[in-house]
Amino acid sequence: MVIIDVCCFYPEQARAAVNAGVHVYIAKPVAIDVPGVLSIGESGKLATQKKQVFFVDYQIPTDPINLEVAQRVWDGGLGRICAINTYGSGSRRAIMEDPPKGPKLESRLQHLLWGNDLPLGGENLLNFDIHAIDAALWLTKLRPISAFGYAETYRPKPQSDSHDLWFITYECPNGVRWNHQSVWIPNLLPEGLTCQLSGVAEASAQITYSGKSFLLGGDQHYGGGEVKNLYPAGAQRNVNTFYELVTQSQCANETAQRAVDGTLTALLGREAATRRTKLTMDELIKENRKLELDTKDLKV
């Protein structure tokens, strides 16, 4: 079963698919709130128990250049990682895709408008920046333990819930600091998703959704190259991987747990920044706050 529609419905759809005994190919973000994320984690584990594939579609880890950079990081090319920086920019969407809400929910279920609405898509931080956040978790295997930040809205007539600017600082195990910046204000910057790492071995690494990826300095130096056409190429690679996993009955479902960790990280940043307070991952999970969606005017 392919799950790729409005992500507030993903947890329920994924659980139904696993219960029905089918393999699952699911887009990001896998959920928009903590109960949904935890449900996805349970579905992934249940799929493994039932010998079913549960695969989450992230494209950055599929690119050959990004993979080469990652392997050199894992081989110790940065020494001890001391800083993480992730970045997302999507200025065009902030200008062009925030029309007034219609009288019914149906008006938001088109043209990806739902991604801007908190109870439907969880805001841009989850729908766009999740790629850069996932890249950081993929490279470092570090899930943040707390976050603090700011979220601002600059659009003169905002119609959706989305904020235009995010500054978030995460604290990771072993004292590693992670800064995330998300820019959705009108400007001339190109859209982009980037993850940068700095290490004590006088070396730095960068992987990206579009642009230059590399590892500079140290004994694992790699000049890298341009990441191109990642959306179609990455999706095709993931479809091929899904097919191989299904046909070879490989059901470890490692992307499910990484998607859980990445979505929780994005949720932690979203909640800490909108509340403008320090929030721990344990507190976020304990709150277990569910976003309610009124679907009474939807027709089957």
Q: Could you please describe the fold and organization of this structure?
A:
This protein is of the alpha+beta class and 300 residues long. It has a single domain, classed as Dihydrodipicolinate Reductase, domain 2 (2-Layer Sandwich). It has ten helices and twelve strands. Helix 2 runs antiparallel to helix 9 and helix 7 packs across helix 9. The mean pLDDT is 93.
Which characteristics define this entry?
single chain; 300 residues; Dihydrodipicolinate Reductase, domain 2; nine-stranded mixed sheet; three-stranded parallel sheet; 10 helices
Helix-strand blueprint:
Layout: E1 2-3, H1 10-19, E2 24-26, H2 34-49, E3 54-56, H3 64-74, E4 81-89, H4 91-96, H5 118-121, H6 124-127, H7 130-140, E5 146-152, E6 165-171, E7 177-183, E8 192-199, E9 204-208, E10 211-216, E11 222-227, H8 230-247, H9 254-275, E12 279-280, H10 281-287
Parallel strand pairs: 1-2, 2-3, 4-7
Antiparallel strand pairs: 4-8, 5-6, 5-12, 6-7, 8-9, 9-10, 10-11
Helix pairs in contact: 1-2, 2-9, 7-9
